[in-house]
Design goal:
The structure holds two protein chains of two kinds. Chain A is built from four helices and no strands. By secondary structure, chain B is of the alpha+beta class. Helices cover 20% and strands 39% of the residues of chain B. The chains are: A mainly alpha, B alpha+beta. The interface between A and B is small, with 10 and 10 residues.
Chain lengths: 84, 148
Amino acid sequence: MANKSMDEIKKEVRKLISDITEVPEKDLKDDASFVEDLGVDSMMALEVIASVEKKYKIVIPEEKIATIRTPKSVYDLLEGLMEK
Amino acid sequence: MENIWDINKIQEILPQKYPFLFVDRVLEINEAEKKIVCLKNLTINDYFFEGHFPGNPVMPGVLILEALAQSSILLFAALKPDIAAKKPIFYLGKVEARYLKPVLAGDQLILEVRGEKMMNNAGVVKARALVNNVVTTEAQIMFGVKIS
């Protein structure tokens, strides 16, 4: 994990979000709203979170989950958690 | 055989009632590992065997999944008793299941559920159903919890 650059991680997370939400990667703009633009419901969001946690062996605190609104917010959160 | 929660305690927790109750006993709760092990005894008297199938009593796969989902509610109640006490609505979000072996009348179905992500309003679990230590069903279950 430590060897991966943030760009690589971002690419992997994009793929993961795309697989779960069934939104093609090309349409997955960093600042698109999960709910309004991408049609993601709370269960899909939970699936994204659980998959990211499993893949990178991290725990996203419950209070941070409400701050996840866009793909970019996922990357930012991951970056913050991985620096620790 | 251990008996952590008996059928009375299970009925206090689960919103499902007869004839839609598919857990007989809780055998093990491990809060640190976020794990629960439950038991469902299958008898030829179980009503669904009458139609599924005549002369060939196989437990319907959807009911195995229901048993695993009910075990997941019990796990949630073990880990978050304060929320469970408020009698929330539990709803299924997504299920991915693989069926490996049929489950028959006479089998003791062991229902193992591990929490992957347990939050106050939702959960993701990995679940397996076993008979004689052989896995018959594997599933990932996502559920929501709504306090009405």
